[in-house]
Amino acid sequence: MADSYDYLFKFLIIGSAGVGKSCTLHQLLEKKFKEDSTHTIGVEFGSRIVHVGGKSVKLQIWDTAGQERFRSVTRSYYRGAAGAILVYDITSRESFNSLSNWLTDAKTLASPNIVIILCGNKKDLDAEREVTFLEASRFAQENEINFLESSALTGENVEDAFNKCAKTILTRIESGDINPETIGSGIQYGDPSLRRLRNARTPAPADPNSCKCG
Ligand SMILES: Nc1nc2c(ncn2[C@@H]2O[C@H](COP(=O)(O)OP(=O)(O)OP(=O)(O)O)[C@@H](O)[C@H]2O)c(=O)[nH]1
């Protein structure tokens, strides 16, 4: 029973090299800072169950390498992702300037309905800040994505980023905006009764024999 959940969502963590993607995942899974983080080679994987909106959701999280030389490998993991945590470093203007490219990749290579949360990491290094909260908020608004600043060092807002992403996906499933049964949705049912519930809510297609016209 320890591993039972209502839904499984495939998540990606993307963004330039050194912004703190692996440390963010480590903080989420271990609730502590990864002291000796080195560049990720290709992709790394982790999973965790979160509780949002009255449901338990298993997050299957792919932490991708930010270095350009791994781009062809990491791109192959985008397909069928339901959510992405797009990370930049608030002390690195360069990492902020690359966000548009990362967004384009996520929207074109993953699910068209992918829910993206923008995360300005290294919030603890405020004295070295190169990107203001306001300009990042504007970027997020223009691109219709949620935004928060986080710290993989202190843990501030790390869980919130993943929870916010999961919650948005759940809301969109419940409103009918996202259909988990679409191929490549990045969503699976953990509890089969949820599928039955959804199918019961979906109106049956019109029966052509019952047409009373003519
Ligand atoms: N002060 C501070 N340092 C951080 C934080 N997150 C990560 N770092 C440091 O930033 C460096 C890069 O962190 P990683 O998590 O390895 O970065 P990454 O984005 O996974 O890098 P790639 O695997 O190359 O894509 C490491 O030296 C971390 O110690 C943070 O929130 N605050």
TrEMBL record:
Top-level taxonomy: Eukaryota, Metazoa, Chordata, Tunicata, Ascidiacea
Species in which this protein is naturally found: Phallusia mammillata
Subcellular location: Early endosome; Endosome membrane
Domain of life: Eukaryota
Transmembrane segments: none
Protein name, entry field: small monomeric GTPase
UniProt-listed Gene3D superfamilies: P-loop containing nucleotide triphosphate hydrolases
Broad enzyme group: hydrolase
Reactions catalysed: GTP + H2O = GDP + phosphate + H(+)
